[in-house]
Amino acid sequence: MVSAGSWGALGYGSVTSPGVAPNVITVGAAKDMNSCTLDDDDVASYSSRGPTWPEHLLKPDVVAPGNRIVSLRVPGGYLDTKFPELRLATGRYTKDPLRQSEESAYFELSGTRHGRAHRHGGDRSRCWSRTKA
């Protein structure tokens, strides 16, 4: 299972190796449009897509959340120091007036790698629950 890639801006046929292999499952990033319905969800514009060359396989095989993923921030970490603009504003996740002046605890990131992690994690948890039963 690999990320489909982030070459979607190039259009169709933008999946690269190892995702082009017929026996490899590629995961693309889904964009959910922040609505309650699934009808408007789509593959994110940056997510690579098939068909592959020379087999003309449709890719990605599956999509998973990968757009605007919110996760814990590590103060002083690499992302924190190199990309401070990606910190999520405190007001976006709490209305508590006493916490509005606190430093953000979260980051918001996008990419096909996030989708692959969600998909792979789901597979792992299913395998674990089956072996424990």
Summarize the structure.
The chain is α/β, with parallel strands linked by helices.
Observed structural traits:
elongated, alpha/beta, 2 domains, 2 helices, four-stranded mixed sheet, disordered C terminus, 20% helix
Helix-strand sequence: EEEEEHEH
Q: Mean pLDDT, as a whole number? A: 80
Helix content: 10-25%
What distance lies between the first and last C-alpha atoms, to the nearest angstrom? 25 Å
What do you see in this structure?
20% of the residues lie in helices and 17% in strands. The chain is of the alpha/beta class and 133 residues long. It has two domains: 1-66 and 110-133, no CATH class; 69-108, no CATH class. The longest helix has 21 residues, at 112-132.
